[in-house]
Amino acid sequence: MKRIAFVFSQAPHGSSAGREGLDAVLAVSALSEDVALFFISDGVMQLLGDQQPEKVLARNYVATFGVLPLYDLENFYACSASLAERGIDAAALKALPVAVLSPHALRAELEKYDQIISF
């Protein structure tokens, strides 16, 4: 079975990329047992707790990331440099239990996957 990585690099609001990515993760998780999510660049903001999407007239799909462990998904990674560039402390990442990795370690982990799908 192929190992599939999903890379989230866009902020949660302003586009539908995050919601579409989450839908794709849920669909693929039914077919593959080895799925991982990587959050880089503005994608790290997908993991922030206490978001208020109604203030920008958006739906709160971000909270849905929290159900992914119920689908036996366990591999979640965030880029430490992306967090630092945005002034985000790792403690603020409440949507998923992510491992915060350096850019080098994150790339090394990402290289272990056969397919990479970006959102």
Automatic annotation (TrEMBL):
Subunit structure as annotated in this protein's UniProt entry: Heterohexamer, formed by a dimer of trimers. The hexameric TusBCD complex contains 2 copies each of TusB, TusC and TusD. The TusBCD complex interacts with TusE.
HAMAP family in UniProt: Thiourid_synth_C
Function per UniProt: Part of a sulfur-relay system required for 2-thiolation of 5-methylaminomethyl-2-thiouridine (mnm(5)s(2)U) at tRNA wobble positions.
Family: Belongs to the DsrF/TusC family.
Matching Gene3D superfamilies: DsrEFH-like
Main location: cytoplasm
Alphabetical UniProt keywords: Cytoplasm, Transferase, tRNA processing
Molecular function via GO: transferase activity
UniProt subcellular location: Cytoplasm
Protein name: Protein TusC
